[in-house]
Write a sequence for this structure.
């Protein structure tokens, strides 16, 4: 039987995302995908399923969701105030969402992008090989109240697991390697760049994050005569007014502004998740250091399931304790476990 | 061209081979030919290739693959021939895209013609007779940068932006033409209007054009374009296609 997730109420910027749509750069379409891919991997670990399954990305605030079926869900990324039928549920954890129960997700309390994962994944039709909404290309659109999203078959069973909270929601130091035009910035200008405290501009979006700072803008030599050239996610373009823009997954495929550096892949979620006004500093590192950090990052992603722990609930806070089947999970040696499916 | 081609890494995402630092026909030809040759080589380390105006980009995971060994292989491949005079890849297409020049559909033809030193009729004749190549695709999905037009079309962008030109608009600046994918503001001048959709997300072939394809824009009347728009269900906008040998 196929299940659906009903959107009863939607925040202004809810989209379906996955790990993106590679392979179309030559045709002018960037990969896109979740602004914070680490959250996608965390949700997959919490639900014990593939990170390729699609999720709902929630920018700043969530919405209200329900289903006619029992679902497993996980909540990752920017912490948001979440409740199931009025009872608070823990972020960065997996939960059961019973048929008919209402999941409400409010505004973020730290970070920018929150993620709602469903056991079996959001199973909308593939578009050019992926499900990710690419707003700037016009692929897909923001979700709205009344939308009904198909859900894939859920092969997992576990709920009540959590992952430790990461520090990527708090701003901090973001590491860079040099890029195509780094040498067009004088060493004084680069030094000033790494000594400047930036804050994330509130107008940031899935295409790019503008960084605000006090003081003069940054300028490259011959900055306006650069031929438009390929962009990779993490590139920091210095625009005409001297403000840096960190380019994200949904940016254009090429750009003509000088690039002072490229944020390493493992620090890009830190840029994406920094709430407006949070302080960020940039630090140049060598390519060798960047590779070592990325190897470690990939290892951390792979070992996420080893960091899972059981949610411990204080019985005193469980409102309807007697409603719980406390001896569930006892297996009969004689019943066929799949009889119910017939 | 002593310094070119130049090879450099791009973050941890790949390797860029630049054939020039300004737009030129031979450098664009080199980028297209080199990309086709890399594609044909089928290197397992290369997950995706693309070109911008005068460069070829190879997406390579530089965490798993040594940049030095890739650069060595690329240098060997680059040394096999003069890429600036290379033949363009085969299997490219020539598109004839019906276009209304001027009228209220494309209000900046006269202004652009004057900048190119022509009266409007002569400008239409020159533009409708020109054959241009997809130099690169970018900015918006499937949106082609086409060139090069004759030298007299080396006209600057406008100082101010036109608030919005519609999808299918044919616009001109710096010896290049663009067919707009989506309605968008632009500093280029709007000289023609087509019904050609460069990006067709629901289609089996979502991107009509590939880098290296060639296009011409035969002049049609407003009525003809309106008939095309009424009958067209594919997004082709009445375009006819020939395969180039």
């Amino acid at each position: 039987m196929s299940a659906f997730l009903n959107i009863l109420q939607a925040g202004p910027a809810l989209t379906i995302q996955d790990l993106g749509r590679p392979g179309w750069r030559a045709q002018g379409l960037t990969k896109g995908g979740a602004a914070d891919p680490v959250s996608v991997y965390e949700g997959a670990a919490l639900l014990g399923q593939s990170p390729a399954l699609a999720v709902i990305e929630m920018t700043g605030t969530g919405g209200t969701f329900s289903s006619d079926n029992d679902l497993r869900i996980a909540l990752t990324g920017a912490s948001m105030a979440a409740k199931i039928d009025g009872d608070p549920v823990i972020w960065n954890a997996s939960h059961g969402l019973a048929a008919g129960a209402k999941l409400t997700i409010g505004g973020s309390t730290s970070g920018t992008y929150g993620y709602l994962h469903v056991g079996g994944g959001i199973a909308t039709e593939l578009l050019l090989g992926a499900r990710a909404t690419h707003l700037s290309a016009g692929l897909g659109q923001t979700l709205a109240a009344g939308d009904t999203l198909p859900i894939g078959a859920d092969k997992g069973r576990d709920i009540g697991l959590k992952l430790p909270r990461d520090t990527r929601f708090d701003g901090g130091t973001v590491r860079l390697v040099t890029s195509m035009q780094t040498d067009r910035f004088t060493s004084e200008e680069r030094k000033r760049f790494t000594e400047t405290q930036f804050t994330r501009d509130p107008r940031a979006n899935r295409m790019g994050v503008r960084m605000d700072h006090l003081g003069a803008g940054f300028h490259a030599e011959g900055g306006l005569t650069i031929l438009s050239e390929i962009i990779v996610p993490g590139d920091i373009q210095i625009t005409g007014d001297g403000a840096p823009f960190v380019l994200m997954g949904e940016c254009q495929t090429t750009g003509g502004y000088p690039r002072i550096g490229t944020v390493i892949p493992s620090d890009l979620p830190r840029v994406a998740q920094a709430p407006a006004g949070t302080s960020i500093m940039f630090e140049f590192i060598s390519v060798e250091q960047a590779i070592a950090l990325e190897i470690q990052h990939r290892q951390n992603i792979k070992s996420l399931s080893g960091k899972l722990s059981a949610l411990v609930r204080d019985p005193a806070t469980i409102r309807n304790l007697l409603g719980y089947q406390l001896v569930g999970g006892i297996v009969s040696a004689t019943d066929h476990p799949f009889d119910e499916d017939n | 061209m002593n310094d070119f081609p130049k090879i450099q890494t791009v973050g941890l995402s790949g390797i860029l081979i630049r054939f020039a630092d300004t737009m030129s026909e031979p450098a664009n030809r080199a980028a297209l030919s080199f990309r086709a040759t890399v594609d044909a080589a089928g290197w397992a380390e290369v997950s995706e290739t693309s070109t911008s105006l005068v460069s070829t980009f190879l997406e390579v995971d530089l965490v798993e693959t040594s940049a030095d060994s890739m650069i060595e292989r690329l240098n060997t491949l680059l040394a096999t021939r003069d890429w600036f005079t290379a033949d363009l890849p085969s299997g490219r297409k020539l598109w004839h895209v019906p276009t209304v020049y001027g009228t209220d559909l494309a209000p900046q033809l006269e202004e652009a013609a004057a900048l190119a030193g022509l009266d409007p009729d002569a400008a239409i004749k020159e533009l409708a007779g020109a054959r241009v190549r997809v130099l690169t695709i970018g900015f918006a999905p499937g949106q082609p940068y086409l060139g090069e037009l004759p030298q007299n079309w080396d006209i600057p962008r406008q100082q101010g932006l036109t608030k919005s030109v519609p999808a299918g608009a044919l616009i001109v600046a710096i010896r290049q033409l663009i067919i707009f994918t989506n309605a968008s503001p632009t500093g280029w001048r709007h000289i023609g209007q087509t019904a050609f959709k460069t990006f067709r997300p629901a289609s089996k072939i979502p991107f009509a054009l590939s880098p290296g394809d060639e296009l011409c824009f035969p002049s049609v009347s407003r009525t003809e374009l309106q008939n095309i728009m009424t009958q067209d269900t594919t997004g082709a906008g009445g375009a006819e296609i020939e395969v180039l040998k």
Remarks:
- Helices of chain A lie at 37-47, 187-195, 268-273, 287-302.
- Confidence is low (pLDDT under 50) at residues 326-342 of chain A.
